[in-house]
Write a structure and sequence with these properties.
Elements (H helix, E strand, L loop, with lengths): L2 E5 L3 H12 L3 E5 L11 E4 L2 E4 L13 H9 L7 E2 L3 E7 L2 E6 L2 H11 L4 H14 L15 H20 L5 H5 L5 H10 L8 H10 L5 E2 L2 H15 L3 E3 L4 E6 L5 E6 L4 E3 L2 E4 L3 H8 L7 H8 L7 E10 L9 E5 L9 E9 L12 E10 L1 H9 L3 H22 L7 E7 L1 H8 L24 E2 L2 E6 L10 H18 L7
Parallel strand pairs: 1-2, 1-13, 2-9, 6-15, 13-20
Antiparallel strand pairs: 3-4, 5-8, 6-7, 10-11, 11-12, 14-17, 14-18, 15-16, 16-17, 19-20
Helix pairs in contact: 1-2, 1-9, 1-15, 3-4, 4-8
Length: 497
């Protein structure tokens, strides 16, 4: 039996493991942390659970290719899919605008807010409605597609292709500029960065109003554990903690094994690098083996930006819900540098009672940053005490801002934890501490997706969200599945799994 070694126990690695076992391989996953899931994780603090990933999950709708991956992998086994009547609410200058699951309601409230923008509002909502029909292709890797696959993809992605044409040459800033009302402009950019392509917002909101985008009960860590269980039930083995230091090549350039941090050499026949690609090509393999598209993304950050996040979790000794979901608002009171977003996201997790003790709740706050945030926090982290003090100072300012905005919370909030790009880099080897992949912009080259194949090494496949920018769980899962289909192709076997 041929052996597949998977480096990284995030969602991509776990999904790859499930499909490798289903395909009859002997499969081992090596994960540097004690808990699998990668960036799809959470942790416990003082009786509260801090969820770090899922705000809403694409692929919860049965009958789609992506849902089949989640079903095959056990991600949704035995749990409810929690839903909300709104995606998020944006606030600006005392006004609010909500993106409701009921798109007619959203359109009506937008027009009432800004009658002068009515034509552009109706055009935008028309495109969002069209996007409801779009399904992410997740059946066959592009290089393995046959005529039938291409026809099927054209059918399921036809609406998206039309939308790409409508917004060709535009980014989200261009889309925002079509509107006069500042709150509508904010609402668009609160979810999609200004550099992202203009179709990003209608595609995302369209997916949400289609009825997709539920939240698996139990949150991110529990979902990752369910996939691990499916993998192990199929006979796969997880080694954690087990940090991989190198992919070992023979004189002919073929991978023959991996070395672990404890010095052990583990032999295998095929290898899936499902960890961060920066780590893959700075530690596991030589940099010159990197794909040209991926190299360009690293060398031209202005065309392929990454971001950072400063995040805080608060315990609230009250069951009064002042947010009712996720709210984006101004952050001038707590904005601590020019590289920090002028907007802040505040989310209540009341939809999941298990996250907090009875009668209490947990709030999480996120301040977005450009990639300059990585330099700031990584340099500050050289002095651990200074790093911690600065984190707590900013978190304290945010706490004060929230208590002023929501008087019922005064004296009832407590900082549970604070994390920065340094956290993601330490925990997941994430490039510049960003928990997603690079963003595709107007400056990106036409071919924006890297090759999963390694120059000069035939039996190593690259998986993970950097293969499917701008990243996220759907892309990670799809690339995990594709990695095994690519190995099956190399083995001369049927690739339908």
């Amino acid at each position: 039996m041929e052996k597949v070694i998977i480096i990284g126990g995030g969602i991509s690695g776990l999904v790859a493991g499930v499909y490798a076992q289903k395909a009859g391989f002997e499969t081992e996953i090596y994960e540097k942390n004690t808990v699998v899931g990668g960036e799809c994780t959470g942790w416990d603090r003082e009786g509260y659970y801090i969820d770090n990933c899922i705000h809403w999950l694409m692929g919860t709708t049965p009958g789609t290719d992506l849902n089949k991956i989640w079903s095959d992998s056990g991600a949704l086994d035995g749990v409810k899919i929690l839903t909300s009547d709104k995606m998020y609410t944006s606030e600006l200058n005392g006004e609010k605008l909500t993106l409701w699951k009921d798109i007619d309601r959203t359109e009506k409230e937008m027009v009432e807010l800004s009658p002068e923008d009515e034509i552009e509002i109706r055009n935008l909502m028309k495109n969002c409605r069209s996007a409801r029909k779009v399904q992410i292709p997740a059946r066959t890797p592009a290089e393995q597609m046959k005529i039938g696959d291409l026809l099927r993809m054209t059918f399921t992605m036809g609406t998206a292709l039309k939308m790409f044409k409508v917004y060709k040459g535009m980014d989200t800033q261009d889309l925002m500029n079509r509107f006069q009302h500042p709150l509508i402009r904010c609402t668009i950019s609160d979810f999609c960065t200004k550099e992202s392509l203009a179709h990003s917002f209608p595609m995302s909101y369209g997916n949400y109003v289609s009825g997709d985008g539920g939240i698996p009960q139990g949150g991110s860590r529990a979902m990752a554990q369910r996939i691990r269980k499916r993998f192990e039930d199929l006979g796969g083995k997880v080694f954690a903690p087990a940090s991989v230091e190198k992919i070992v090549l023979n004189d002919a350039g073929k991978a023959i094994g991996i070395t672990l941090s404890d010095g052990r050499l583990i032999h295998g026949d095929y290898f899936v690098a499902a960890c961060d690609t920066d780590y893959t090509f700075s530690h596991l393999l030589d940099r010159e083996r990197m794909d040209d598209v991926l190299r360009e993304a690293y060398e031209h950050p202005e065309a392929y930006p990454v971001y950072g996040m400063f995040q805080v979790a608060f315990a609230v000794d009250s069951d009064v819900d002042m947010l009712n979901g996720e709210i984006m608002m101004e952050s001038s009171q707590v904005r601590f540098a020019d590289f920090v977003s002028p907007r802040i996201t505040v989310k209540n997790f009341n939809y999941e009672p298990s996250f907090a003790p009875a009668g209490k709740q947990i709030l999480q706050v996120m301040l977005g940053m450009t990639d300059e945030g990585w330099k700031y926090w990584s340099e500050l982290n050289r002095d651990k005490e200074a790093y911690r003090a600065r984190k707590m100072e900013i978190a304290g300012n945010i706490l004060k801002m929230l208590e002023e905005k929501y008087p019922p919370y005064q004296g009832k909030m407590k900082i549970l934890d604070v994390w920065t790009p340094v956290t993601y880099h330490r925990y997941c080897n994430a490039y510049k501490g960003y928990n997603q992949a690079y963003t595709i912009t107007k400056q990106s080259r036409q071919q924006v997706y890297p090759s999963p194949f390694v120059k000069g090494v035939d039996n190593v496949i690259i998986a993970g969200q950097w293969m499917s920018a701008p990243g996220g769980l759907p892309g990670a899962a799809i690339q995990g599945k594709y990695s095994i289909q690519r190995i099956l192709k190399k083995c001369g076997r049927k690739t339908e799994i």
